[in-house]
Amino acid sequence: MIKFEEAQRLILKKIKRLGRETVRIEEAMDRVLAEEIASDMDVPPFNKSAMDGYAFSHRQIKNVPAVLKVKSEIRAGEYEPDKLKKTECLKIMTGAPLPKRTDCVVKMEDIETLKNNYIKIMKKPSFGENVCFKGEDVQKGRIILRKGAVLRGPEVAVCAAVGKSKVQAYRRPKVPVLSTGDELVEPDKKVTFGKIRNSNGPMLIALLKKMGISPDYLGIVKDKEKNLICKIRKGLSSDIFIISGGVSVGDYDLVPAALEKCGVKKIFHKLAITPGKPLFFGQKGGHLIFGVPGNPVSTYLLFLTLIRLAINRMMGTTLNLNLRKGTVTSDYSQRPGRKRFVPAKIKMQGNRHTIYPLREYHGSADIISLVKADGFMIIPDSITFLEKNSSAEVFLW
Amino acid sequence: MIKFEEAQRLILKKIKRLGRETVRIEEAMDRVLAEEIASDMDVPPFNKSAMDGYAFSHRQIKNVPAVLKVKSEIRAGEYEPDKLKKTECLKIMTGAPLPKRTDCVVKMEDIETLKNNYIKIMKKPSFGENVCFKGEDVQKGRIILRKGAVLRGPEVAVCAAVGKSKVQAYRRPKVPVLSTGDELVEPDKKVTFGKIRNSNGPMLIALLKKMGISPDYLGIVKDKEKNLICKIRKGLSSDIFIISGGVSVGDYDLVPAALEKCGVKKIFHKLAITPGKPLFFGQKGGHLIFGVPGNPVSTYLLFLTLIRLAINRMMGTTLNLNLRKGTVTSDYSQRPGRKRFVPAKIKMQGNRHTIYPLREYHGSADIISLVKADGFMIIPDSITFLEKNSSAEVFLW
After folding, report:
1. Alpha helix (H) residue ranges in A133-251
2. Distance from the A93 Cα atom to the nearest Cα atom in chain B, whole angstroms
3. Residue B53 to chain A, least CA–CA distance (Å)
4. All structural domains of chain A
5. pTM to 2 decimals?
6. A360 touches chain B (CB under 8 A)
7. Which of A138-142, B184-188, B332-336 has the lowest mean pLDDT?
8. At what angle do helices A153-161 and B200-210 cross, to 10 degrees?
9. Least CA distance to A49: which residue of chain B?
10. d(Cα A310, Cα A8) in Å, to the nearest integer?
């Protein structure tokens, strides 16, 4: 039985970042860049008006009020190549390029319109007034997104701005899911006496889909070594293979032995945590295998704290668990020896979390109580008693 | 010009929760339940062994050590109908149903195996030891998930456990996106002088896809009323229509007028915030229309704070913005009059956030600086100066 932190370390040591693939930026949210993105141009690409107004050179105006003739008009997306005389200006719209030898834009509010296309300037303009200069945001060739950057809204917009409609991102792993157990039937099938419904399977598939992964569901396999080996062979060509059930130490917990027969090397089996103790972690070449217990609370915890971490790391993200400090609202006692994750309702009060361990929760099969929780309170393995109002760590989902 | 809070109120007032649709539970993460889910059976559905061990009635043992004959074996998924004699027990596996008149399971560790299928019980067992009783987690018919519950891992598992492989969830809105502006070209097209690339379009599509919405992208339309009206008509049959650009007050900001010609009633136009002031919000029957400015920082802010809120509310969630208190690391001064959202790097120190406003950021067109931010520092409209080390509100993305 190994410690939780040791398990994390052993898992992360085995993770290799996956290769890259081309992704359209519209589909790339939360993906990790596998290339550097440089600007292919100056941004803005020309001196640009930041306002609707009148463009000229600030040197044209010695004293105010001054009168200029409006030669023509220039809109965003247009180009006005004509040179201006010293007595002329151009009406200009936000986003339009400033003509040569102009360097300021005076706002509508700061002029008076006269007859015959003349305007009167009331306030002396300064150089660069209401102008975004070429290359002000970024110069051509500069790296604007580094390899490893996670794509959020701004990153997608930046890629678009510099002409990257597709980017190289680390690919998502192939993650098949296999449920095992003679007692299991799928949720849409009839339950006969002695059977229960498969809840780990749909939950794992849903959790993986939320991560943007398209998991391959291999169904339920009976607790027979021959059947198990056949299904395990199917899943082994993947990046991460999740097998639910059959990893405890009973006579019919056949998964570790069947995995071994398929050439999987055990890295560890059993963790000093509650729930989730029977976790199996193994490897065959570049393929990693997680065997999680059939109890859904255990599997949910192991997925969030270890499997998800491994998947994220493969895709290039190193996001940590959302751990916070909180105050426990009731005394809590436990048997020592294992790190315990206690389902809890967690309320935010100011910047502080208040922890209400679920009273009705009675063990790792009790998925129904878990819907009332927002996270797990974490009790270190050495602690037997936690007094009301003391501080504890919480893992927020 | 209306206040931000007033805009939020006006928007939320117009939101109607959408109708329901059937969704497979594997696809239902983050969806909102539009029905109550009751358990269709007792959970567990039978008295179940929580351990591998030996099942009998605790009354069979008056004194220890005691000897019992192992009659047969029962595995998870099997049913053992035979009655036991007072001198007999059954070997039982985790998850298997307890036969009639048995009420405890003694673990392997607490017995000694003898010859000829006999075992010696070393410790007096108690009633219910290592047994999960029928209906202990939930009784048949009890409501276990309420209408309005957000589906996470545990909720998906619970639905599976009670046989709901599909659920009724509030449907996702239809959200088309239209970009406007003569100066815009799509990211994969050549940029000629005076043009810039469309970054709002791909960003909005990506942000919507992240919410699980399949947006309909209507492309770029030129600043011509006829073209605008034609495209607007296409988008108006949706739940929420997002139009980017053309909502300022310049001569070629034609969107509000074109919307009006299409029968859209203005609810408000212009907000007292920076960036994002030109926001337009209107309505035509049950269809809501957001006109956002062309600058991507404004659009990102407006999407996160207002449009996303509206979409979530339509789908039945009432998640609030992730607002926290933090400490500003430098003096900050501003012109008063509008609530200001300042892009900032935000670091977590303990339970406290430290705010580093981006120094290089120069305005709502500067999407390139925005990739360095984690959120916005929020400065109320009345404040002109914020001293270093004072407290400010931050909106974490």
Report:
1. 153-161, 200-210, 225-235
2. 7
3. 9
4. 4-16+172-315 (3.40.980.10), 20-41+147-170 (3.90.105.10), 48-132 (2.170.190.11), 323-396 (2.40.340.10)
5. 0.90
6. no
7. B332-336
8. 150
9. B194
10. 9
